[in-house]
Amino acid sequence: MGRIGRAKIAIIGSGNIGGILAYHATSRKLGDIVLYDIVEGRPQGKSIDISAAAREDEFDLRIVGTNDYADLKGSNIVVITAGATRRPGMSRSDLVHINSKIMKEVSEGIKKFAPNSYIIVVSNPLDAMVTLCQRYTGFPHHKVMGMAGVLDSARFATFIAWELGISVRDINATVLGGHGDSMVPIVRFANVNGIPVTELLERKYKGDKSHAKKVMDQLVERTQTAGGEVVKLLKDGSAFFSPASSILTMIEAIIQDQKRLMSASAYLTGQFGVYGYYVGVPCIIGAEGVEQIVEFTMNEEEKIMFDKSVAAVQELINSLNDPPNAA
After folding, report:
1. Are 271 and 297 in contact (CB under 8 A)?
2. How far apart are CA 228 and CA 10, in angstroms?
3. Rounded to 5 degrees, what angle do the CA atoms 298, 301, 306 make?
4. Residues 291, 296, 302, 306: what is their CA dihedral angle, to the nearest 10 degrees?
5. Catalytic residue at 179?
């Protein structure tokens, strides 16, 4: 009897996110791992270290560290974390021309050696990098997606949980739009097992709706700037634990065909009035990647915020077609 196949997950970039993702993907028994990096020794060292955790964490999976794109052959899912990270004072858009060169090389490697894979892009600026990856690979749009909305929604839920003193596991929160300071937390959808967060805030502040709204506005703003908050505190890097966790959610949805509804950067063909751009929207993620984009009717305030966020994405994408002159 032949061996029953299992998933192969390639991770491009073995830095903080890549290393943690590789470890948790194996500990959750999601599949064999290929950890790629241009730095010789780094992915090999991390693969050996993770492999040595197999006995205690009870997994029997193969982890390979490599500097050769050829080792991506046969990958079902490729996660791209490679690229420069933000430093204090930098915006995500500051990275666009640095990371666009890296994305071109990575995409060409994936296209050559893993042409049947699904791609999850994590590199910043997220929406621009997803766009470039799809352009360079030529893969169908539903097979190339960006991880941002899962993370942004998790951050929103976390800040709500802290404010209310309630388990974050019971909080539902949704963040849409571009992965930047103009992202759009959907306040009216935020709830604790169906109970609106706005109502719970009003109760906490004894019916003072004005103060409750002020607190919610602060939660929204903190969500929008959470990535920068972490960068400022770390001083020499950006978030990595929570992005890795969010990527795992997307990988599981694809490998296990979960049909999960989550926010992801997906290509729009008219949904929410947007044509031809990758933007964070509610998606059904399953074995065919982005299987469906779920639309809903936005109220006036949400639509204004969403359109502003889309405009920021469009400006960033347009800048890719007009790179600055070389020095």
Report:
1. no
2. 28
3. 65
4. 30
5. yes
Would you state the pLDDT for residue 323?
Answer: 45
Burial 59-97 (b: 16+ CB within 10 A, else e): bebebbbbeebebbeebbbbbbbbbebbeeeeebbebbe
Q: Contact, 251 vs 25, CB < 8 A?
A: yes
How far are the Cα atoms of 23, 50, 68, 252 from residue 27, in angstroms, in the given order? Answer: 6, 9, 25, 13
AA identity, residue 324: P
- Give the pLDDT of residue 2: 43
Q: What φ, ψ does residue 170 adopt, rounded to 5°?
A: -100, 5
| Cα separation, 86 vs 27, whole angstroms | 29
Q: Which residue has the tokens 């097979």?
A: 143
8 DSSP β-pair partners = 32
How do beta strands 8-12 and 184-185 pair? Answer: unpaired
pLDDT tens track for 240-281: 999 999 999 999 999 999 999 999 999 999 999 999 999 999
Q: Tell me the C-alpha distance between 170 and 192, whole Å.
A: 5
**What sections of the chain are H helices per DSSP?**
16-27, 42-51, 54-57, 96-113, 126-137, 149-164, 197-204, 209-224, 226-234, 241-255, 300-320
Tens digits of per-residue pLDDT, 84-134? 776 666 665 677 878 888 999 999 999 999 999 999 999 988 999 999 999
In the predicted model, is pLDDT for residue 137 greater than 70? Answer: yes
Structure tokens at 165: 């003193």
Share of the chain above pLDDT 70, in %: 94
| Residue 172 CB coordination number (10 Å) | 15
Give me the mean pLDDT over the 8-22 stretch.
97
What's at 141, amino acid-wise? H
**Residue in this structure with the two tokens 């979960």, named with its chain if needed:** 258
CB atoms within 10 A of CB 325: 4
> Annotated catalytic residue: which of 24, 141, 179, 211?
179
Entry pTM: 0.94
Q: How far is CA 22 from the centre of its chain?
A: 15
